[in-house]
């Protein structure tokens, strides 16, 4: 098993590289709502260990009105097929800020991650954002990178 020797608790940091697909709904007067998903993988800065090379899918909703705020959920799947489930929130306080950021929490898991607890912070940005206009919304896509820094505990 790829992570059979996983410690029962620890700290972790790394990067989640992803592709973004979104639908953006302009509502007028500088307000837009977006729903979308990020799909990619995680690279632990230690070069192995917790969630290293796990695939990740996140679904989210985001309010964009100068400032930004949102909420979402992610599922990680490691090389053994074991999963963690994550809830995150975040945003930025002005359109001039380069990064979005916020807290995230482990809310469940399967296999070796069953009963996981923990939290982390994330910080990231999208690059090469592009949109295609549809009848009453925009389809957007981009690439992105989020840094994660946190801790976990297994039963």
Task: Tell me about this structure.
The chain is an all-beta fold. It is 0% helix and 70% strand. It contains no helices and eight strands. Strands 1-2-3-4-5-6-7-8 form an eight-stranded antiparallel barrel. A hairpin with a 4-residue loop joins strand 7 (117-133) and strand 8 (138-153). The model has no long low-confidence stretch (mean pLDDT 93).
The chain-level structural class is: mainly beta
Number of helices: 0
Mean pLDDT: 93
β-strand amount: over 45%
Task: Tell me the Rg in angstroms.
Answer: 16 Å
Termini separation: 19 Å
Order of helices and strands: EEEEEEEE
Please provide the count of β strands: 8
The spatial strand order of the largest sheet comes to 1-2-3-4-5-6-7-8
Largest sheet data: 8 strands, antiparallel, barrel
Helical amount:
under 10%
Low-confidence stretches: none
| Global geometry | elongated
Task: Set down the secondary structure blueprint.
Layout lengths: L8 E20 L2 E14 L10 E11 L1 E11 L5 E10 L7 E10 L7 E17 L4 E16 L2
Antiparallel strand pairs: 1-2, 1-8, 2-3, 3-4, 4-5, 5-6, 6-7, 7-8
Provide a short characterization of the protein structure.
The protein is mainly β and 155 residues long.
Which descriptors apply to this entry?
155 residues; mainly beta; eight-stranded antiparallel beta barrel
